[in-house]
Every structure is written in structure tokens, then in C-alpha cells.
Amino acid sequence: MLFSKLERKVAFRYMRSRGKGFGSVISWVSLLGIMLGVATLIVVMSVMSGFHDTLLSRIIGMNGHVVVYHGDGAIKDYDFLVDKMRQNKVVESAVSSIVPIAEGQVMVSANGYNSGAMIRGIRMSDLKSKTKTGTRIYGKDLDSVKDGELIIGSSLSRQLRVTMNDNVSLISANGGTATAFGTMPRIMSYPVVSSFFMGMYEYDSGYIFMPLATAQKYLNIGDSVTHIDLFLKNPEKTNEVRDALTKLLPSGFVVRDWRDLNRGFVGALQVESNVMFLILMLIVIVAAFNIVSSLVMLVKDKSKDIAVLRTFGVSRYSMMKIFILSGTSIGVIGSALGTGLGVIIAIYIEPIRKFFQWATGRDLFPADLYYLSELPSKLEITSVIGIALIAIALSFLATLYPAWKAANTDPVEVLRGE
Questions:
Q1: Own/partner pairs for 311-315, CB < 8 Å, 24+ apart?
Q2: Most CB contacts within 10 A, which of 91, 259, 388, 406?
């Protein structure tokens, strides 16, 4: 066995004997520090992972994994182009759907309230397939939405004080009427027949969906679209599709994938996650230094016991193992408790957030700042196990110097004055 019966018995007796003095306080602080450090790391990394996956899934899920633009700003004969894409073996095998989109920025006005918004013209069958997961539709079913009717974000509808079948006015400088005094803005009124809730504030407060034909008429682009979205079966494998489309499409077309379109956002999330991990790991490192202090004081306090054990034939190697076991046990117990605590908090992070929000009376997670209406959390088993193992490894390393000091205690010098 790794540890003999004598080594285990002495190590655990030394752990129990710390009931008095300053050394016992340091031991408890070490254990609590490791526990809180591990729990905090698990919670923060789970929330960061949840942010990453939730934001990307909602941003990418509505915008396409690969997007095709044209230098002129409009794509004509888009149905022919979609058929041409589908005939390509690489595209057909990787793509789940191809969606033509007509999009533009507008000012929306109703009941004396105004707000900027993005209108997106899309075929209702395509929109329905994209809103099956995590999106709630209120009002008229998407299948029955007709030309000239709008689906508005839930936050935007509250901001404009709009209810079902109310009219809203869309105002755009593009496609306006030219007059002697300049270009008059294009203003048209449409009824709101449905609203949607995606749980992402940017969409819920700033997007309006409408049938593709309605958007084409309003944007005055004829039978054209502004871009074509391609949704892949595996969002991580965009390079092959992008390269195939670049070769397939004639000059003037530009192909971008979701990494290109969200490069700054994705990079910022990754950097923030790494920095948070390094900062919070300092908690565990400080707790590991406390283990060093605790064991050094224990070695000093038990120097006579160590000398007696050495005179009875206990080897230096066994003395090292005794103190390594004693100190590492703090790390193992703290890591186990911290892992359990962190997993529980990560699972119930949203109810905990709501409780503290209710108790303090303050909005602890404003949707307009964080883009999400709920605090996301995603537990990854590899991350949880990795954090716990790192904490145990640091605790083990912290025991090496005190254990070496105990093993090198000279029994003759210690017992000379006895």
C-alpha cells in the first residue's frame, strides 16, 4: 500500500490533535479557503461556459453559421442561387437549411413612443424552423401570418406599449421619395399580430420579423434579398462550406462565417474566461500557502514526537509520508466539499440570483447590460474534475517542504535537553 497502517494512524492523529492553538486556526482557514476557492471556480467557470454557449447559440442560431453577401448590397435570383448551392456536394452534406433574408434598419413608432429596430424579412416556414428551440411565440401562429403583418420582440412591444393588432409605423431613410426639398423618409404602417421572446435582450428589444415579400416592398429592393444565411449541421465545421462557396459563387459575392462576424465577441468571452480562472485560482493558492504554515507549525509542535518515532526506527521517508498525508487530506476534504458546494450553486444559480434580487430589492442581472434575461450556467464534468484535481495537486505540493523539514529533524538535538 502507498501508506502503511502506522503512517495513516500517526497522520490522522496529528490532524485530530490540532484542536488548540494558532496552528489549528490556520488548518481550518486552509480547508475553508480551498473549499471556497474550488466552489467559486466551479460556479464562475460554469456561468462563463453558460454565457458562451447561450449567447453564441442565440446569436448564431438566428444569423446563420455561414452568410453570403453581395458587393451591391442586394442579391437577385436568390432562389436560383440557393438551388445552385444545394447542388454542391460539400454544401449539401453539411448544410441543414438555406434561408434568404431581407434586412434593414428602421425607426419604429407607436403610441407616441419611438425606438430603433432591425426589420428582418423571412419566409414564415423558415422562421418557424428557427424558433422551435428556446423561443416563445405569443399571438397569431407563424403559419397564418400574412403579407403586411409583423412579429415584434416582447421587450420592444412593452417599450412601445403595443398589444396584438395595434398598428406601428416603420420609418426608414432608405428607399424614400425624392422631392425638391430632399429625400422624404419612407413611412408605412403595419399591424402587429404576434410577439416573440427569445430570452436575449438584443433581439427581444430590437428586432421585428415580417414576411419576406413585405420586407422587399418596404425596403424597395424588388425581388431581391440582402443576404443568404446557411445553417450547418455542425456549427464548428464552417471552413469547408466557406471554401466551397467561395469557389462556387461568381465574383462580387462575399462569404463570411460566424467566427468572422463575431470575432471580437468570441475572443472577448474566451479572454475573460481565462482571466477569471487565473484570478480565482489565487484563492486556492493562498489556501495552499496556509497549509505550508500550518504544517510547519505542526512540525515544530511535534518535534519531540518526531524524535521519539525516529529513535524507534521510523525512517525519514515514513516521516515525510506522514506529513504529506496529513496536509494533503486538507486539500482532498476541502476540494470534495468545494466541489459539492460549487455544483449545487451552479445548478441552482438562477433561483439563487432571484432570491438575492428579491432580498436586496436590486436588479442584479440587468438584461439590457448582459443581453440575457436569465443567468445561464453549464456544468462541464471535465472542468469540475480538473479544478478539483488542481486544488489537490497544489495541496500536495504545499506539504513537501514541511514534510522534508520533519524528515530531517535530528532526534539527538531534540532530545539532548530532555
A1: 311/411, 311/415, 314/6
A2: 406
Cα angle 152-157-161, degrees, rounded to a multiple of 5: 150
Tens of pLDDT, residues 361-402:
776 666 555 556 677 788 888 888 988 888 888 888 888 888
Residues 34-64: tens digit of each pLDDT: 888 888 888 888 888 887 777 666 666 677 8
In-domain check, residue 107: yes
Q: Which domain holds residue 22?
A: 5-57+265-415
CA–CA dist 381, 361 (Å, integer): 34
Cα–Cα separations (whole angstroms), residue 237 to 82, 92, 95, 125, 247 = 20, 13, 10, 25, 17
Count structural domains, the chain. 2
C-alpha neighbours within 13 Å on the C-beta side of residue 61: 19
- Per DSSP (E only), the strands in 111-244 are 113-121, 136-139, 150-153, 167-179, 182-197, 207-210, 224-225, 227-232
Question: Comparing C-alpha atoms, which of 68, 74, 70 is closest to residue 91?
Answer: 68
The candidate with the shortest Cα–Cα distance to 175, out of 117, 218, 121, 215, is: 218
pTM: 0.62
Query: Which residues make beta-bridge pairs with 102?
Result: 121
What is the C-alpha to C-alpha distance for residues 158 and 123, in angstroms, rounded to an integer?
25
Handedness of CA 348, 354, 359, 365 (dihedral sign): positive
- Report yes or no: 283 and 342 within 8 Å, Cβ to Cβ: no
Assess whether 95 and 229 both reside in one domain.
Answer: yes
Q: Are residues 247 and 270 in the same domain?
A: no
**Encoded amino acid at 372, one letter:** L
The Cα 305–Cα 415 span in angstroms is 10
Query: Same structural domain for residues 308 and 390?
Result: yes
Show the cell assigned to 404: 522534508
Helix ranges, 162-302 (H) = 201-204, 212-219, 239-248, 258-261, 263-301
